[in-house]
């Protein structure tokens, strides 16, 4: 049975949010950047809006704010970098 693209997209968003929220302190930047790459490819393909994808990641990263010097600005910058890097590497869920 095929999975509907919308439910697949929702699972991707939820999975990346959970990955970011649960990451260990010393892996925060790497994990946020990796998740931004995954979602950035979907943004570039028009599968999800940038605002929505950014909100998912920054909300998930909020659990780390003020823990060992982590700031919301750091999360925002890392997500932006991931989106810019993955902009030319689209990932389409629909044909």
Q: What does this protein look like?
A:
With about 100 residues, the chain is mostly helical. The chain contains four helices and no strands. It has helices at about 5-20, 30-45, 50-60, 70-85. Helix 1 (about 5-20) packs parallel to helix 3 (about 50-60) and helix 3 runs antiparallel to helix 4 (about 70-85). The longest helix has 18 residues, at about 5-20. The protein is globular, with a radius of gyration of 13 Å. The mean pLDDT is about 85.
Alpha carbon gap, first and last residue = 17 Å
Q: In angstroms, what is the radius of gyration?
A: 13 Å
Give the percentage of residues in beta strands: under 5%
Number of helices: 4
Shape: globular
Task: Report the major sheet.
Answer: none
Range of helix content? 55-70%
Order of helices and strands: HHHH
Q: Could you list the spans in which at least 5 consecutive residues all have pLDDT below 50?
A: none
Secondary-structure-based class equals: mainly alpha
Average pLDDT for all residues: 87
Number of β-strand runs: 0
């Amino acid at each position: 049975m095929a999975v509907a693209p919308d439910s697949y997209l929702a699972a991707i968003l939820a999975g990346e949010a959970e990955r970011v929220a649960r990451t260990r302190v010393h892996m925060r930047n790497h994990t946020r950047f990796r998740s931004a790459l995954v979602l950035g490819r979907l943004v570039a393909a028009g599968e999800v809006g940038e605002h929505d994808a950014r909100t998912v990641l920054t909300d998930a990263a909020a659990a780390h704010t003020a823990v060992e010097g982590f700031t919301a600005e750091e999360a925002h910058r890392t997500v932006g970098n991931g989106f810019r890097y993955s902009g030319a590497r689209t990932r389409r869920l629909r044909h």
